[in-house]
Design a protein that fits this description.
With 299 residues, the chain is α+β, with helices and mostly antiparallel strands. The chain has eleven helices and nine strands. Helix content is 46%, strand content 17%. It has a five-stranded mixed beta sheet with strand order 5-7-6-8-9. A four-stranded antiparallel beta sheet has the order 1-2-3-4.
């Protein structure tokens, strides 16, 4: 969900965006990867830019999450976690090869079948708990974070969609955001619960969202263990499983899968590869329409 931080960033960068559209220096398409990497701004430059942009607001702080080549050749992609007393938000912008312009907005897939690459990547990589037949014409993949308030808010819409489309295949993938201080632990518990019982996972997920506000970094083990017990499993066994390197590797693989299809925030749904964000704000009829349309297109 776009926050005030992103709106501030848009307002600050809009003039640069207009200038960048007309810049003759955007010529890097087709350059070798090593040469593209050489165009990446330094962390010091990005930090100075953010200081100049947000330094007037004493309550706003930031953490640079990543600086890497963007999906579009020549552009650098910068991911930043912005924080204020109102919360935290992952924001993204792009830097042109000349290092003089920042570009805002989403980069979306294009082509005769623009969502096929993401669909195929997800089909090969999804490992999370699921509902519905794997042979269904539509696969819906949710990347979620158990500590994410927006994920909790979106659950009624997602559950409504699953109820309206019983023949769809629905898969949950862990995507704990680094800005949340117990999300990674929650993902580890969720992974272990799913490994123990697919049915228990959905009870665990619902109860975790229901009690989300009561869970802190300090009491997460206690709360999550109790929630695993409540889902019908032995919480102590789940807690032991959650601390293993194998479980950490499972969560990291799920994160890597999400990043490979350009997930930047949660919850993000993919309907046969088509990304849908701001789920709680999308009308139920529109979500159902997307699934029905995907079913008609086939795989």
């Amino acid at each position: 969900m776009r926050s005030a931080f992103n709106l501030i960033l848009i307002l600050v960068l809009i003039c640069s965006f207009s200038a960048a559209q007309n810049s003759p220096s955007i010529k890097a398409a087709g350059k070798p990867a090593a040469e593209q990497a050489a165009n990446l701004p330094s962390e010091a430059t990005v930090d100075s830019f953010l200081q100049q942009t947000f330094g007037y607001e004493a309550q706003v702080s930031w953490k640079i999450s990543s600086i890497k080549p963007a999906p579009v050749p020549g552009l650098a992609q910068v991911d930043v976690v912005l924080a204020s007393p109102q919360g935290q938000q992952l924001s993204r912008f792009y830097v042109t090869p000349d290092g003089q312009h920042a570009v805002i907005g989403e980069i979306i897939p294009f082509g005769a079948k623009p969502y096929d690459p993401a669909r195929k990547t997800l089909e090969k990589g999804i490992t999370g708990p699921s509902r519905g037949s794997k042979n269904a014409p539509v696969t819906i993949v949710e990347f979620g974070d158990l500590q994410c308030p927006a994920c909790k808010a979106a659950q009624p819409a997602i559950e409504g969609l699953i109820a309206a489309e019983p023949d769809a295949h629905f898969v949950f993938q862990n995507f704990p955001l680094e800005m949340h201080n117990w999300a990674a632990k929650g993902a580890a518990y969720a992974d272990c619960v799913a490994q123990a019982s697919n049915d228990a996972f959905w009870k665990f997920l619902a109860k975790t969202y229901e009690t989300q506000a009561d869970i802190t970094a300090e009491n997460a083990d206690e709360k999550l263990t109790a929630l695993a017990d409540g889902a019908g499993l032995k919480g102590a066994n789940i807690a032991a499983c959650a601390s293993t390197p194998v479980t950490k590797a499972h969560v990291e693989a799920s994160l890597a899968l999400g990043k490979s299809v350009n997930v930047t925030g949660t919850p993000t749904l993919f309907i046969n590869g088509r990304s849908v964000g701001n789920v709680s704000q999308v009308p139920a009829a529109s979500l159902k329409g997307l699934v029905d349309f995907a079913a008609k297109q086939g795989k």
